[in-house]
Design a protein that fits this description.
The chain is an alpha+beta fold. 34% of the residues lie in helices and 27% in strands. The strands form 8 sheets. An 8-stranded mixed β-sheet has the order 15-19-20-27-24-23-21-22, sandwiched between helices. A 5-stranded mixed β-sheet has the order 2-1-5-3-4, covered by helices on one side. Strands 29-28-30-31-32 form a 5-stranded mixed β-sheet, sandwiched between helices.
Length: 646
């Protein structure tokens, strides 16, 4: 018998394999009102009304008002889309891969014999999906024997479903299929009770995806959709997508001449143009200054290292598929570095360390190289060569708590400097398979928890979600249009100190194993700048703007005065340019706005005679007439304070 504590109803006993449908019927038989149930949450697992329940625990019924119900909705839409594809292009010509949910919707990977989908096909698929919804097909779940499942999908020529059964579902594990009208699919669920009970959706894009993510496998077509329970939420999300297109850092990067990715150089390898290099230099300079102030020591390490280094670290055994191929130099193997950690370990080990020296905090803006598949490369967000704002803290046990708190404060202070004030924080704890003793895990996890609580922010615990070598904190930031971006990580590592035999001499004159903390604030400089460009839609704060002011002469005779203004502003450390083109003033203003330049300084007869400038900003329009000295004072204050205002 199962014991289920049902939210708002109390504790009940049921037979093993009972479904939500059975439970609801039993409760209604006792005169209890159970309305609008879409599915349930059993402990931390989402289940639908058909799923057999085989373990005791906490059960909560889900309705459309519960955020978790979107998982059920979106999974159901993936099946409706798969059914639509089968009906449109032929049951045995459409071979289904996988169709999971995403943060805002769903996708399905498919192979369609003789058909390459285009954007023009999406409305046709949508119409067929709406027709299936109108049919209100009942959705049912069945568990079938392995042999029966293989024969079923062999008859339907579902080669990818057969591959899943043979290689991803262990012998003896139940195999479940879901049916709706004449459509059947291999699936664990969850799903809504019928196709007529879904909300609203929109198909948004197409992409390619290798089967099981391996390049040697067939390339399938991936169809993305978004789905919500109501039209208002869908419209809000689609508006956000439109805004995201306008803010796309790849588009703005070209238009603002910040960076390029040239296929002659290689995919995923960014070339920073002069204006983009200014942004990067400002960020890196501020990063270095802040780290030196907080007791970090800056280091530089090579871009390549011997094979033995990566064997010792474990990368050759566990990370090789993400590394560029080995180079042979004088009959020895070398790899370009995928991470900076082993180099920092060797710097620590370059001499014997005393407990009095700890903590040692090594920081580096270290460029690393990882082999990303071409299909996942995306501007600055996903690249093959990128610079990590890396640091490693090596400390004693009695120092761990303070160091973690200091790191988290540094992370939040830094992110707020760039205009990010809304965070999601996740604490990932020990997984089943791990290295390190119980005490180290306990000390590390408690230190991470106390650090989060010390800054007064809410956080979620990801039980068992830590790496095998230590627990961690992940920090996500919310941008101007509500998207969350994975950014900072604070990660304990019990693995490398063991592998490299790191130690310090304690007060007792004995060797002791130090604690090692990996830490990145931005994650990578490239990705963070990509996020910044999209967050600010290209109009960066004054201190980061490549050109901080454009001086616009009203007519050609005023160019002489414009050059005088330029000279004084440059002497004050401002990045300015004169627009001396033979164009109308209004066009010059419009062009400066399109280039996302914070200030436009207009100079004509009146300004020349009085030694002033008329100041205009993209956000506020005309803000008044200033002397050159007044404007310098105003601008320098904003720059020195790293202000987000103009």
């Amino acid at each position: 018998m199962l014991k289920l504590n049902i939210h708002r109803f109390g504790e009940f006993e049921f037979e093993d394999g009972v479904t939500l449908k059975d439970i609801i019927k039993a409760l209604e038989g006792e005169g209890k009102k159970v309305k609008n149930v879409i599915g349930g949450k059993l402990n931390d697992e989402i289940v639908d009304i058909h799923t057999p329940i085989k373990k005791s625990g906490e059960l909560k019924f889900l309705t459309k008002k519960d955020p978790e119900s979107l998982e059920i909705l979106r999974h159901s839409f993936a099946h409706i889309m798969a059914q639509a594809l089968k009906e449109l292009y032929g049951d045995k010509k459409v071979h289904l891969g996988i169709g999971p949910t995403t943060e805002h919707g769903f996708y399905y990977d498919v192979e369609i014999e003789g058909k390459r989908l285009t954007e023009e096909d999406l409305p046709i698929i949508e119409e067929k999906m709406k027709e299936i919804i109108q049919r209100n097909c009942q959705i049912e779940r069945k568990e079938i024997p392995r042999d029966e499942a293989l024969k079923l999908f062999e008859d339907k020529k579902e080669i990818y479903k057969i591959d899943i059964i043979k290689h991803q579902i262990p012998e003896g594990e139940p195999i479940s299929v879901y049916t709706q009208c004449d459509f059947i699919d291999l699936c664990r669920g969850p799903h809504v009770p019928s196709t007529g009970e879904v909300g609203v959706f929109k198909l948004v894009s197409l992409a390619g995806a290798y089967w099981r993510g391996k390049e040697g496998n067939p390339m399938l077509q991936r169809i993305y959709g978004v789905a919500f329970w109501n039209e208002k939420d869908l419209k809000k999300y689609l508006n956000m997508l439109e805004e995201a297109k306008k803010r796309d850092h790849r588009k703005l990067g070209r238009e603002l001449e910040l960076f390029i990715i040239d296929e002659d150089v290689g995919g995923g390898l960014a070339l920073w143009l002069p204006k983009g290099a200014i942004i990067r230099n400002e960020i890196e300079t501020a990063w270095k200054q802040e780290h030196i102030k907080r007791g970090y020591q800056l280091v530089y390490t090579p871009h390549v290292g011997k094979e033995q280094l990566w064997k010792t670290s474990g990368h050759v055994d566990f990370y090789r598929e993400n590394m560029f191929p080995e180079m042979m130099i004088e009959e020895e193997g070398y790899f370009v570095k995928p991470m900076n950690c082993p180099f920092h370990v060797e710097i620590y080990k370059s001499k014997q360390r005393s407990y009095k020296e700890l903590p040692i905090k090594l920081a580096e803006l270290g460029t690393v190289y990882r082999y990303e598949r071409s299909g996942v490369l995306h501007g600055l967000m996903r690249v093959r060569g990128f610079t990590q704002d890396d640091a490693h803290i090596i400390c004693r046990e009695d120092q761990v708590e303070k160091e973690i708190q200091d790191v988290l404060h540094l992370v939040l202070d830094t992110l707020r400097t760039y205009g990010f004030n809304e965070f999601q924080i996740f604490l990932s704890t020990r997984p089943e398979k791990s290295v390190g003793d119980d005490r180290m895990w306990e000390v590390a996890t408690n230190s991470l928890r106390k650090a989060i609580e010390s800054v007064g922010l809410d956080y979620e615990i990801d039980e068992g979600g830590g790496a095998f070598y230590g627990p961690k904190i992940d920090v996500k930031i919310k941008d101007a249009i509500g998207r969350m971006w994975q950014c900072s990580t604070i990660q304990f590592d019990f693995n490398l100190p063991e592998r490299f035999d790191m130690y310090y001499i304690g007060e007792d004159n004995q060797r002791h194993r130090p604690y090692m903390i990996h830490r990145a604030i931005f994650g990578s400089i490239e990705r963070f700048i990509g996020v910044l460009i999209e967050h600010y839609a290209g109009l960066l704060p004054l201190w980061l703007s490549p050109i901080q002011a454009k001086i616009i002469p009203v007519a050609d005779p005023h160019i002489t005065y414009a050059k005088e203004v330029e000279k004084k502003l440059k002497e004050a450390g401002l990045r300015v340019e004169v627009d001396d083109r033979s164009e109308r003033m209004n066009k010059k203003i419009r062009d400066a706005e399109l280039q996302k330049i914070p200030y436009m300084l207009i100079v004509g007869d009146k300004e020349w005679q009085t030694g002033t400038i008329s100041v205009r900003t993209k956000k506020k329009g005309n803000v008044g007439v200033f002397t050159i000295e007044e404007f310098i004072e105003r601008a320098r204050k904003l720059i020195d304070e790293k202000s987000l205002e103009l």
